[in-house]
Amino acid sequence: MKWTLLIVAVCLSLHGSESWASKRHLEDNENEISSRISHHNSAGPPDHNKLVEMARYVMHNCDWASIATISTQPAISGFPFTNVKSIVDGSMANSTGMPYFYMSPLDFTARDLAKNTRATVLVSLEETRYCESQKWDPEDPRCTRLMLSGKMRKVKEGSEEYKFAKAALFERHPAMAHFPPDHNWFVAKMKIAQIAMVDWFGGAKYVSVKDYLAYNYTGEEVLHYYNRLHL
Fold first, then answer.
1. Which residue range(s) make up the domain with 143?
2. Cβ of 23: how many Cβ atoms within 10 Å?
3. Number of structural domains the chain divides into
4. pLDDT at 123 over 50
5. For residue 86, what are the β-bridge partners?
6. Region 188-215: what's the mean pLDDT?
7. 12 domain residue, yes or no
8. How many alpha carbons lie under 13 Å from residue 133 in its C-beta half-sphere?
9. What pTM value is reported for the model?
């Protein structure tokens, strides 16, 4: 009887420890998410009526994008095909609104673009975890998604723009410095033809490309977030 009670007590103790550890793990994850939200978006996104500011905010605060191209793969030639690409729109302290990418000719996307330069790039406010903090589904209209369509082109190697864009890419995505050197990497950007955005109820809105590129975005939330990570 004593041995039975001892075994039961040990089992209950272990179960309690596991439950506590599980709860602690969940709390740590929640704290990490909350920390990222509070420091990556200290002031939160702009008012949804400020279309240009919202568009620039989302672009600057996203680290990656979905890029859709017209596939050249034999089995799906001519089909839309999407891929994930790391992205910047300038340095952490100098947003330009222009999406820049670091690509290799070996990749799906670069192969497609070599034949047809048309593409659409999508970024979402969900990447910042702000929507999660508001308990919004990624498809909720309030969880802003920005879609830029246009033609992709290489940035001339050695040009001032190339140096700026590559430095910005490596600043935000330091792993790029260790990518295989024999993959013929190049910097690409989009000549934007249309900007569509869903940031509230009532359907998509269209943002003037001229106004978007001319807007002086001065937000420093990305810079503050990364500086905090390296304290």
1. 47-230
2. 10
3. 1
4. yes
5. 64
6. 98
7. no
8. 19
9. 0.81
